[in-house]
TrEMBL record:
Record keywords: Coiled coil
Highest taxon of the lineage: Bacteria
GO MF, one example: DNA strand exchange activity
Annotated source species: Butyribacter intestini
Protein name: Resolvase
Sections of the chain in a coiled coil: 7-41
Length: 96
């Protein structure tokens, strides 16, 4: 980068940087507003199925029954179980 020695050169460089900042702000706004793809963890649907899993699991239902009742895969139910176990262990550790 060259050294700026005159007021005109400084003003020109400031104008270039302001233009660059405006372009970057527009790009940032695009990324802020875009919809993220993939599984959205812990959204309303996830919580509804998880709460149903907890109720079914604690009442003695099998994983397959819970999966069919919620129209999800068994793998999804086992993910809920892992989360359930993690939360229980966390709660038990806090109580000790």
């Amino acid at each position: 980068m060259e050294k700026i020695e005159t007021l005109e050169a400084a003003l020109k460089r400031i104008a270039e940087l302001e233009s660059e900042n405006e372009k970057l702000r527009e790009e940032l706004e695009y990324y802020k507003n875009r919809k993220m793809s993939g599984r959205q963890k812990h959204n309303a649907k996830w919580m509804a199925i998880y709460n149903d899993f907890v109720a079914g699991y604690e009442s003695g239902m099998t994983m397959i029954e819970i999966a069919k009742r919620n129209n999800v895969s068994e793998r999804t139910i086992y993910r809920y179980k892992a989360y359930y176990d993690k939360m229980r262990n966390t709660k038990e550790n806090v109580l000790e």
